[in-house]
Amino acid sequence: MVIAFPAVLLAAAALASCGGDGGAGTGNDAAGGSGANAVQTAEADAAAARLLLPDNFKGVCSGAPVSRATAYDPRATAHKALYFATYRDDFLDQSSTLPGDWTVLFSADRDALTAIDLVVCARRTAAREVRICSGFQNEGRPTRNRVRWHTATYEMSVREARTGRTLAQTTAEATSSQCPMFMMFEGDADTVDGYAALPDSVVADFLRPHVTR
């Protein structure tokens, strides 16, 4: 997968990649550890598998319930939400764009996402091509990649996470005609579709009556 950047943004795109050392372990770790350690690892893996993940809530946008989510109480003074928006043919978690105190981050140490009681969804229902974006580079080399850029219409809904029930619904327009800062391509001569996203403020304004009192 090639990530191509417009030439004008290359100077700002020099991001360092950080990662752990991939070297082999030593001592008991290299040998697989003791039997007791193996049992503990299996138990830890099983516990981790039971943790709710953001993707477990995608189905709420289609009315599916998440039984381990918190029941929504409109009289409560605090609520936690996740936000999903259409990306290609599926929903993508965009919760990081919500105000920090409106959502919950996944934690490997505890089942933090059981605190979620709301899910806000933005389903793209229509799109209009408005321009062709070009001038992308791959590691400093010019490419023939292009993006067919679209403005878009989204159906927005707020739903109870526990039941999938819709609390509110509206339609909103994403009207930005600005070419994307970066895009992903399979090669150096691809033409792909791109779509404007709803501004964060539009999503927040729609969700606010259900999160704050």
Question: Could you name the key traits of this structure?
Answer:
four-stranded antiparallel sheet; alpha+beta; 10 strands; 3 helices; 213 residues; six-stranded mixed sheet; 15% helix
Structure description:
The protein has helices spanning 27-31, 35-49, 200-211, and strands spanning 2-6, 81-87, 90-93, 118-133, 136-138, 141-142, 146-160, 166-174, 183-185, 191-195. The termini are far apart. The radius of gyration is 22 Å and the shape is globular. Helices cover 15% and strands 32% of the residues. By secondary structure, it is an alpha+beta fold. It has one domain (49-211).
Question: What's the layout of helices and strands?
Answer:
Elements: E1 2-6, H1 27-31, H2 35-49, E2 81-87, E3 90-93, E4 118-133, E5 136-138, E6 141-142, E7 146-160, E8 166-174, E9 183-185, E10 191-195, H3 200-211
Parallel strand pairs: 2-4, 7-10
Antiparallel strand pairs: 1-5, 1-9, 2-3, 4-7, 5-6, 7-8
